[in-house]
Amino acid sequence: MTFEHASKLQNCFGGQITIEYLDGSDERGDKNSSIALNIVKPLFPKKIEFATNNRSISMASQKAAGFVRVSRYWEQMTMSTRALISLAGQAKFGNRKVQAPRVNNSLFGADNGYSLETYFNVTHFNQVLIFGDYATLIGEKDYEAECSLADATHVAIYFLYEGNEEKTKQMLQLNEKQYDDINKKAGKVGWTECPILRNYIKENSKTKFFCVNVSKFTEWDKLENKVIKGAKCLTLSNWRGIGRSFRTHFSSKHLKFHERDLHFALKPSEAILKEANRFRRVLHGPYIAVHVRGEKVLLAHNFSDYKAACVFYTSS
Asked: Is the residue at 48 inside a domain?
C-alpha cells in the first residue's frame, strides 16, 4: 500500500471503503500488481436545533385537504421510518396528512401491531416534520373518521419497480401474461387501472385502483394531477421511499432537510426510555450495544424456543 493510499484512509472516517487487489500484466507481458482503493464519503445527518412554538401547534392542527396511508412498508424499522418521512415530504404537495403506521416486529403496516407512539414521541415527531416543512402525521382513528364519510373519494396505488417483477407477481398473484399486460400499459403513460389490486388491498368499495410505473414520475404534483385527481383518501402499496433501485424517483429538491436529518432528530417514546434506563441499571456501568438481526439464522437451525428464552432473559 502506498503513502497515497494511507493518506486517503486517514481522511475517510465513517466512509465506505472498497479495496481491490489487481494482479495482471502490462503490454510487454511483465507481471504488474496494484491496489485499487475506492472510498465513498459518509453522509452524516445534520444536527437540527429547534424549539416548540405556536406555529408548530397551529400547523399540526391545520385541516388537510386529503390523507394518505401505506398498507405495508417492505423494510425494517430504520428504512421504513425514512420511507415514512419521505412520504410526508411529498404529501405536502397534496395538502395531505399521513397516517402513522402500526408496528409489528419492526415492520410498518396499516392493519396490526403496536401504535407508532410505542416507539417514538409522536408529538415531537410532528414538530420535527413541521420544522422541515413536511406534512404531519395523524392517527388511525382520525384517518378512518375522515375517509369513512359517504362523500370521501378513494384511490389506491401499487408501485411497479424495475427488477421487482417476480415479487409483484407473487404478491398480486399474477401469471406472466397478466403481469406483462399491466406492465406494458403502465409503461406507456406511467399508470394503468389495476382492478386486480382489490384482491390485495382492503379498500372502500368505491376505490379506484392504479398500478404506477415509478420511472415515469419524478414530481409528486404529476401523480396528484394525473392519477389521484383530487381523491381525498389515498392508499399506497409497495411504498419503499425515494432513492435508487427499488424505490420511487420523486424529487426532494424542495425540502429544507433530507429525510435522514429529520430521522436523526426524532426522540424515542417514554416507554422506550424507561426500558433503556432499566437495562442500564442491570449492567451497572458503561456498555456498547450491538443489534444483531439473527432470528432467521436461529429459525433456520430449528431453534424454535429462542424467542421465549430471550424474553425470559430480558424480563428476569
From this structure: no
Asked if 29 and 115 sit in the same domain, the reply is no
Within the chain, strands assigned E span 16-25, 31-40, 66-73, 96-99, 102-104, 107-109, 137-138, 154-160, 191-193, 208-213, 233-239
- Beta strands 137-138 and 96-99 are parallel
Q: 132 lies in which domain range?
A: 66-265
Q: Return the half-sphere exposure (C-beta side, CA atoms, 13 A cut-off) of residue 48.
A: 24
Tell me the pairing of strands 154-160 and 208-213: parallel
**What SS3 class is residue 227?**
helix
Q: Does 293 fall in a domain?
A: no
Does residue 273 belong to any structural domain of this protein? no
* 86 part of a folded domain: yes
| Pairing of β 191-193 and β 208-213 | antiparallel
Give the mean pLDDT of 70-94. Answer: 91
Q: Is the pLDDT of residue 134 over 50?
A: yes
Helices (H), the chain: 3-10, 54-61, 77-91, 122-131, 140-147, 165-172, 176-189, 220-223, 259-265, 270-283, 295-300, 306-315
CA distance 210 to 194: 5
On whether both 159 and 257 belong to a single domain, the answer is yes
Sign, CA dihedral 176-182-185-186, equals: negative
The pLDDT of residue 303 is 63
The average confidence (pLDDT) of the chain is 83
Antiparallel, parallel or unpaired: β 233-239 and 154-160 = parallel
